[in-house]
Amino acid sequence: MRNKILFSLSLIGFLAGLVSAYVFGIQKPPMPPTFIPATNPFEKGIYVNGIIESDQPNGENINLYPEVSGTIRQIFVAEGERVRAGTALLKLDDSVQKATVEQQKSQAEAALTVLEELKAEPRKENLEIAGAQADLARANLKSSKDSLDKQKASYELDPNSVSKDTLDTAWNAVKVAQANLEVAEKQLELVKAGAWSYDIRNQEKQYEALSKAFLASSALLAKYVISAPTDGLVLSINAAVGSYVSAQGAYETYSQGFNPVMVMGSAAEHLAVRCYVDEILIHRLPQGSEISARMFIRGTDVNIPLEYVRKQPYVSPKIELSNQRTERVDVRVLPLIFRFPKSKGRDLYPGQLVDVYIAEPGTR
């Protein structure tokens, strides 16, 4: 009985193994690809990574950083908006700098008023006062002389009629009156001469210095508004109203790094493609005028011929892998820039990654 049970169990296990082997041996048909992967359109072609940019005569996209630090109070544009050169894009809190400008403006105006006052001398009223003081001194001198003459005449008639002390006092009064007249006349000449040339030049320099300080503060105040440096398209705004920004840019919460406050691109009818050629493939590139390339849009079967624009003649580390400049990367690449016309019904954006094939020399 026991042997029959063991034989039955063995038979069941054997049959289960056969069924399992059959079931797991069945191969499921692969799922169809979501899109046709890029294939080399040339007999011999170099594959490179590319990134779409706005079409610029030189450089890349325009990264905007504030030249001063502050809190954003207003943003005047939206992403995707076309702007003209000089258009105000955003404004920082300028309350402190504006008060400084007003203070320095008032100081410059006060210095100018003092300068005009010096140049306007002598003042009519001061001349009249100085002239009156000189006339008073002459009158006092005449009165003192008349008193002395009377004392002398009396003394000559009768020496006992006037004491020697009284006569000396009269002489001293004349001398004092004479000295007072000389002082009053010199004061009148000083008033007539007007302001001293050294005082005027000193005040001119003070006014000039304060005026330049006011102009410098006004120029700094203007930097609290970031304006478009050229005609273009607002690609991205990386800060919000209330955010604190500095010359390093705006703090990005997720990457914990700093980004440009705004990024602008060209509003031209073309887009550019920046391709990175591995340094070991540089020798296989044709001459600039002979370069032919095609771009493949990832996720689609669309491919677009590219027009060669220029070569950036500097081999640099490829940091586009993670966008971390502290990353140690051994791959070095040579950037090539191509362009292609925008077309309706096909949405392509700066920053989009694409696949590019470049034909080798002698390849069609």
Topology, number of strands: 17
CATH architecture of the domain at 45-55 and 268-359: Beta Barrel
Instruction: Please give the CATH class of the domain at 45-55 and 268-359.
Output: Mainly Beta
Structural class: alpha+beta
Total helical segments: 5
The helicity comes to 25-40%
Unreliable runs: none
Mean pLDDT: 85
Query: What's the order of the H and E elements?
Result: HEEEEEHHHHEEEEEEEEEEEE
Per the CATH scheme, the topology name of the domain at 45-55 and 268-359 is Elongation Factor Tu (Ef-tu), domain 3
Question: How much is the radius of gyration in Å?
Answer: 47 Å
Distance between the termini: 82 Å
- Strand count, sense and closure of the main sheet? 6 strands, antiparallel, barrel
Can you tell me the overall shape? rod-shaped
Output the CATH homologous superfamily of the domain at 45-55 and 268-359: Efflux pump adaptor protein, beta barrel domain
Describe the overall structure.
This protein is α+β, with helices and mostly antiparallel strands and 364 residues long. Among the domains are: 45-55 and 268-359, Efflux pump adaptor protein, beta barrel domain (Elongation Factor Tu (Ef-tu), domain 3), CATH 2.40.30; 62-93 and 224-265, OB fold (Dihydrolipoamide Acetyltransferase, E2P); 122-194, Helix Hairpins, CATH 1.10.287. The chain is built from five helices and 17 strands. The chain has helices spanning 2-25, 95-120, 124-157, 164-193, 197-222; strands spanning 45-54, 62-64, 70-75, 82-83, 88-92, 225-227, 232-237, 244-246, 249-252, 257-259, 262-265, 270-278, 293-297, 303-311, 316-317, 332-341, 353-359. It has a six-stranded antiparallel beta barrel. A six-stranded antiparallel beta sheet has the order 6-5-3-8-9-10, with no helix packed on it. The longest helix has 34 residues, at 124-157. The mean pLDDT is 85.
